[in-house]
Specification:
The chain is 64% helix and 3% strand. The protein contains 15 helices and four strands. The strands form two sheets. It has a two-stranded antiparallel sheet with strand order 1-2. Strands 3-4 form a two-stranded antiparallel ribbon. A hairpin with an 8-residue loop joins strand 3 and strand 4. Helix 7 packs antiparallel against helix 10. The protein is mainly α.
């Protein structure tokens, strides 16, 4: 919970020095705790089959977590190496991700003479006017291009860290395999998904050709992916929009709608659009007994 609090506080305003300091402090404490508990995961992975099964049977609620540890066994290093990686991440990749967030959430954009946040700007990718959609994407890319040196260095460092640790040290066969393992999805499942998408990409292409004709474009391109086929502008208050969403959820599932109402009634929604707020929207699930937060 304390980790969730630090991340949510930082997400409210990524330039808040108190929040940043608190988040770094929490990450350091949790890293120390993880290092002190390394002995358990490393020891469990090295138990013989009989003792492994005995522990799995004794702790049924933890069976999923324990089985995941066993899956990670082929990619686990020595205790000293694992401890060094945790220290490395604290001042390495984690710091780079924080720098990226601080930098990009502070970006501002200009459209029609107005200064906008990224979330405000991206509303216009669905504009009914083709030139406005083009101007929106060009403005988005202009700001990122102006910061390409710093962003490029961050990306390069993150990619190199991923390669060095996951493939060179841990021995994963590919970068994608690392993410599949963290999502507990077999490589073959993802490969099958990619194969089906690749085989049927012509359907995707035909759809956008038809859409381009429908909205009167001679040639469809990236600027117009979200162009509305039919456009009806409607403005409404936040409360009315919330009720519209809840009514839609009710039509789908009362249980689902009630979960949404619980989040709203608990004041776990930060809907304000502001500079330096972490881009979203996203739902932050802490743990099963805690009501999620939405930013």
């Amino acid at each position: 919970k304390i980790s969730a609090y630090s991340h949510l506080w930082d997400s409210e305003d990524t330039t808040n020095q108190q929040a940043i300091s608190f988040k770094v402090k929490v990450e350091k404490i949790l890293s120390d705790v993880e290092q002190r508990l390394l002995f358990f995961s490393l020891s469990f992975k090295n138990f013989d089959a009989k003792n492994t099964q005995r522990i799995l049977d004794a702790f049924p609620q933890q069976r999923y977590f324990l089985n995941l540890l066993l899956k990670l066994k082929p990619y686990t290093l020595t205790k000293k190496e694992e401890a060094l990686i945790k220290v490395k991440d604290l001042s390495g990749v984690n710091a780079l991700k924080n720098i990226y967030s601080i930098l990009t959430t502070a970006f501002t954009y200009t459209l029609h003479g107005k200064t906008l946040t990224q979330n405000e700007l991206l509303d216009f990718v669905r504009s009914k006017h083709s030139q406005e959609r083009i101007d929106t994407y060009n403005e988005l890319l202009r700001v990122y291009k102006e910061n390409k040196a710093v962003l490029g260095e961050v990306y390069t460092s993150l990619i190199n860290d991923w390669q060095n640790e996951s493939l060179d040290l841990r021995g994963y066969k590919s970068s994608l395999a690392v993410r599949n393992m963290s999502n507990d999805i077999d490589d073959s499942v993802v490969e099958a998904l990619i194969h089906v998408c690749d085989t049927n990409k012509s359907l995707f292409q035909k759809y956008f050709i038809l859409k381009g004709k429908k909205i009167g474009l001679k040639k469809m391109n990236r600027y117009h992916l979200y162009a509305p086929v039919e456009f009806k502008e409607q403005k409404m208050t936040y409360d009315k929009a919330v009720q519209l969403i809840l009514n839609t959820f009710d039509a789908f599932s009362t249980t689902f709608a009630n979960h949404a109402r619980t989040i709203l009634d608990s004041h776990h929604v930060d809907s304000e659009v502001r500079t330096n707020k972490y881009t979203g929207a996203f739902c932050y699930g802490v743990e099963p007994r805690t009501i999620p937060y939405i930013l």
